[in-house]
Task: structure prediction
Amino acid sequence: MNHTTHIIYAGGTFGSHGTPLSPLPADEFLPILKTQFSDKLPNITIDILPNLLIKDSSTLTPSDFVHLYSLILQAYAVGGRRFVLITGTDSLSFLAAFLANAFSDFKDISLIITGSMQPLFIADNPIYTINESSDAWVNLSASIMATTEHTGVFVQFYHKLMYALDTQKLNSQNHDAFIGKLVNNKKTDQTVFNQKPFSIQLVIDDRLAHLPKLIANAKHTHITAIYCLPNDVANLEHQLRHLSGNTKSVILIGFGAGNVPSSPTLIDQIVKLTQQNIRIICTTMCAFGGTTADYASGAWQYEYGVEASDKGIAGIYGQTLWQVLQP
Result:
């Protein structure tokens, strides 16, 4: 079994420097990071996967998500099983949910997505100097250790290991920025996955064969979010009527438990979209509690093809993007 932990650096605050902050190029940042590995984790075998996609995560696109998925898939195909992806926090939850859905069939993978709220280096120091008060190294080292103890796809942030299917960034400043379902501290027994080998090679071969189509689909896929505000319902009608031509799904972010104003025109527009196989998924703008059909102001939409979800916006986006990209 390959016990190497593969690191993918994709930018974000973690590797940012300067004022204002911007991600450092890989050839400047990674040599110093490698030194940190040698000094602080001498007993862990680390490999850094080549990656040219270095961005602020607020600019990531579906094509970028597929690019990162393909890097991990190709490394997995040649024996890699442990991965840590360093990315920015703005879209971390979206990317993590996408990867959790993409690798749900891979029972022996350990993939941890992490980042930081402060950069590893002191931002305004012209010489790259480690910021000892940053959360960057704490998050990264915990992520690396988690790959040795758990199998699955997770988000590691501020001493918390969370399932990647549905996390949310709730704070734009504090180190403790994310919430999600916590993973218990029991180590995963990886031997169970080796007792009953299923045809993982067939899965890998199939995924690799479909990569070109996935890459092509990602270039022309939009998922639109519409946030309910105390406006006239005509505003919602207008937004649904003027969707991008490449829209494959709509996330409707309702009030309370998923309550959305209605009108005959809005209902007609919803029916037209669902008949065009454009999925409309309702969630709530509330951080906790999810949606219910307890209120007439929310229940009406489900009669016309709208789907309810108990996930947050990022979780729905990641799940839906993976689904709509399939050939």
Notes: Confidence is low (pLDDT under 50) at residues 189-197.
